[in-house]
Structures are given as structure tokens and as C-alpha cells.
């Protein structure tokens, strides 16, 4: 159960969307710098927004997204083992917030897609979990695609879920095709200014996963191209940095 539901709204005169807008600004800065402290600060603002009685699915979505990225940042640190418990806590909190979001708005496509990604990661860490998490993953993907076929993050998250599940070449090519579709949607999205609460994260990570797909398919030149594309958008992308070193043998031209 989300402990934040019992917390008082921090800004008595503020609407949850005002808190969420402040959280989005902090999240955006955290994402650009890949800064764990700023992800944590964004989480706090989103928790305050969700503690308000009028909190909506959008507020919970942002809390889930911030906790999800906080988990990724924790696991990406050099002292990964030390941060494992905190990362697991952030992942659990992300799942709880996103579950609340889809209860409030059953058609919130990106929340469903993030839940599917969480289940995909959990399956990828232990394939035995597919027995009970596989049906949940497929359910969330079905809901996500029902209303989010043309949503860049839905396609990106679908592709990452497929990537984590893929064990054979055909499955990896399916993940690649989905991620390439997401890339086109991200390119189109970038041409339109976002609304105050609209998400705009994921483009660089999509490119990184395209690179990872090509790497798994033993196409190092294509992998290097996409790792470089990701780094052009986000130089702090550690996965893209590591991937480029691998496929170029540590000596990228």
C-alpha cells in the first residue's frame, strides 16, 4: 500500500498538478544529468502531489515514472550491489504508483506500458517468474496498445519488454521492429511542443535499446550507429557508452 496516501498535502493551497509540474522540471533535469539526487527530489514532489485528495492518474503516472528511473539510476552506479535494496524499493514503489494510476484511469496507456516493462525486467532477471508474471505482462501490453498504438513511449516500452523476454533471434527481431517504430514516433513527437504535464522522456533510451538489439543480433556496425545516436541526445547514457565500447572493442572511431 502506498504510504504517501496517508501523508498530508504539502502545499495546502496548491493543486496537485502544480506540484507535478514542479516535479516534471526536476525530473527533466535529473534525466539530462542522470542525477540520482534530483530523481529523488522529483519523487518527493510527485509524492506530495499524490497525497492531495484530488490527485489524478497523471500525478500517479509521474510518480511511477520517477521511481522507475530512480531505480535505473541506482542500478547503474558502480557500487550497484550496495544500492540493490534501494533500487528494489524504488521498483516496488513504481509498480504501486502505476497500479494506482490505471485504477484511476484504465486507459492510461503509458502507465500500462511501464507496468509491462517492470514485469518484463523481473522475468528477465529470473525466467521462472514467467509463469506468474507472463500473464500480467501480456495483460498490461494489451491495455497499453488498445489506446497507445501511436504513443512513442508505449512502443518504446513494448520494445524493451520484448527485448528482455527475447531468447531467440526471431524474438529479438520483433523487439527491434517495435523499437524502430518507436524511433519514428519519437522523431515526430519532437516536432511538437509538449503540454505542461506531457512526458517527453525515452527517446535516447529507445535508441540505446535499438543498439542493444543489433548487438544481440551480431550486427556491431548498426549497433554502434545507434549507440552514437543515443549519446548525441544524452551524453550521460551509461548503457550507450558501455555498448559502444563493447561493439567497437573499446576504440570507437
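^ C-alpha cells above, recovered residues below v
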Amino acid at each position: 500500500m502506498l504510504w504517501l496516501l496517508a501523508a498530508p498535502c504539502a502545499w495546502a493551497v496548491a493543486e496537485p498538478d502544480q506540484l507535478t509540474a514542479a516535479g516534471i522540471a526536476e525530473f527533466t533535469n535529473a534525466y539530462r544529468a542522470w542525477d540520482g539526487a534530483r530523481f529523488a527530489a522529483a519523487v518527493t514532489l510527485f509524492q506530495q502531489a499524490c497525497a492531495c485528495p484530488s490527485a489524478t492518474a497523471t500525478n500517479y503516472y509521474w510518480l511511477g515514472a520517477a521511481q522507475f528511473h530512480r531505480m535505473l539510476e541506482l542500478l547503474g552506479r558502480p557500487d550497484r550491489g550496495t544500492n540493490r535494496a534501494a533500487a528494489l524499493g524504488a521498483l516496488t514503489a513504481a509498480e504501486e504508483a502505476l497500479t494506482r494510476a490505471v485504477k484511476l484511469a484504465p486507459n492510461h496507456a503509458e502507465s500500462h506500458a511501464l507496468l509491462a516493462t517492470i514485469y518484463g525486467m523481473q522475468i528477465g532477471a529470473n525466467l521462472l517468474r514467467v509463469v506468474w508474471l507472463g500473464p500480467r505482462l501480456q495483460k498490461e501490453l494489451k491495455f497499453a496498445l488498445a489506446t497507445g498504438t501511436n504513443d512513442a513511449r508505449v512502443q518504446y516500452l513494448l520494445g524493451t519488454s520484448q527485448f528482455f523476454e527475447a531468447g531467440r533471434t526471431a524474438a529479438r527481431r520483433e523487439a527491434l521492429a517495435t523499437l524502430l517504430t518507436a524511433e519514428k514516433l519519437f522523431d515526430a513527437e519532437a516536432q511538437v511542443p509538449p503540454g505542461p504535464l506531457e512526458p517527453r522522456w525515452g527517446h535516447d533510451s529507445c535508441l540505446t535499446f535499438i543498439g542493444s538489439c543489433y548487438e544481440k543480433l551480431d550486427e556491431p556496425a548498426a549497433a554502434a550507429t545507434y549507440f552514437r545516436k543515443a549519446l548525441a541526445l544524452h551524453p550521460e547514457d551509461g548503457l550507450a557508452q558501455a555498448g559502444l565500447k563493447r561493439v567497437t572493442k573499446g576504440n570507437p572511431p
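Residues 62 and 243 are 28 Å apart (CA to CA).
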